[in-house]
Amino acid sequence: MWRILLTEFFQDIRNQKLRAFLTIIAISWGTFAVILLLAFGQGVSNKMLEGMLGAGNQVMMIYSGQTSINHDGLGVGRRIRFTEDDIRLLEETVPYIGYISPQYGRYDMNLRSPHASTNTYGEGVNPDFEVMRTMYPAAGGRFLNALDVAEQRRVIFLGNEIALRLYPDGDAVGSIVQLDGTPFTIVGVMEAKMQTAMSHGPDADRAIIPYTTYRNMYSQRFLGSILIRPTEPDKQLIVKEEITRVLARKYQFDPADQEAIAIWDFIEMERISRAVGTGVTIFLFAVGFFTLLIAGVGVANIMYVVVKERTREIGVKKALGAKNHHITMQFITESLLISFIGGGLGIAGATLIVEFVLSLNLTEGAGEFLGQPVLSQTVVLITVGVLTAIGFVAGVFPARKASRLEPVESLRYE
């Protein structure tokens, strides 16, 4: 039976070469467009999310400000300043804190090596900073540890780009660098990462030292900010509310005063970024789907033409005992075959383009975002499902028309 169906299908293709060719091209183009759009759209969304997480992985950065609401007889404009005591206070009173680090910081730290001299933004932090800011060391080095902090060691962790400027030969780890005239040992260099969101510049140009060393070296009393990561992202609101409540009680400001402290919430930013990515994916799929839908109209048209040209043949088959469902199945099968041939060509073409772009290994400029398309198996399966639905719908109406033809009338058809 299947051999007969395939034979008749290819016979129809030969009889309707132009229509069949144009319809298959339309299906191919629609499939090619939807898969390619989604592949590049997913790649861009992934890179945007990766770049955002490069600045902070599920963290909240808390900055001090000044009061803007009268509270308990205290006027507006009072400056709020964080100290290291606040770190211990938050650890003891706020639930669901997984990581926390003080952040001292200053611009124009001077770093000098035997090869070069440069200025940068530097920070004093604790070991939790590594995970929260995704500043992982490249092979052969390490981040700051608890002993560095406890013993106020003169050790420094450098961003990958500033390390390369100071030591062009790539031998920074273990070397000595002068930090504002004081010798520090380089214990690690950051592994290169993508970063689109920034605080005081890119991490690739940053110098990190233990916060205890920083405090004593620069005699700085007040923190620049506090970095916190909840144990779980869904505890974000609880942690945020408790931080505000605890600090408001200590510094005597209204918890509703949004100017007293500012919270840069990377968890919310990540949630928004994922939602935007999902929205872009839905939009791109809709564009491709309507392209396929238009191609489906072409399939339906060619099937109506086939039914018309084979009216006498249908009459002969029914006169010889063919049932309505036999006729229906024949035309639906032919419609599905046209859809699958076109879809297969489209999928193959899109796959070749994606693999070619990936082989170029684009890592700079626009290529950093457009050079990593993602060919998702889920997208391919959904596209095949859509093709099946379009092929079935495009074939079912002509097939029903064919199956309802009376044998006598069909045999008289000219």
Secondary structure layout:
Blueprint: H1 2-15, H2 17-53, E1 60-64, H3 84-93, E2 97-112, E3 117-125, H4 129-132, H5 146-150, E4 155-158, H6 160-166, E5 176-179, E6 182-189, E7 206-210, H7 211-218, E8 225-230, H8 236-251, E9 261-265, H9 266-309, H10 311-319, H11 324-360, H12 367-370, H13 377-403, H14 407-412
Parallel strand pairs: 3-7, 4-6
Antiparallel strand pairs: 1-8, 1-9, 2-3, 2-5, 2-8, 4-7, 5-6
Walk me through this protein's architecture:
The chain is elongated, with a radius of gyration of 33 Å. The longest helix is centred in the C-terminal third of the chain and has 44 residues, at 266-309. It has 414 residues and is α+β, with helices and mostly antiparallel strands. It has a 6-stranded mixed beta barrel with strand order 2-3-7-4-6-5. The chain is built from 14 helices and 9 strands. Strand 5 and strand 6 form a beta hairpin. The protein has helices at residues 2-15, 17-53, 84-93, 129-132, 146-150, 160-166, 211-218, 236-251, 266-309, 311-319, 324-360, 367-370, 377-403, 407-412, and strands at 60-64, 97-112, 117-125, 155-158, 176-179, 182-189, 206-210, 225-230, 261-265. It folds into 2 domains: 2-53 and 271-412, no CATH class; 60-266, no CATH class.
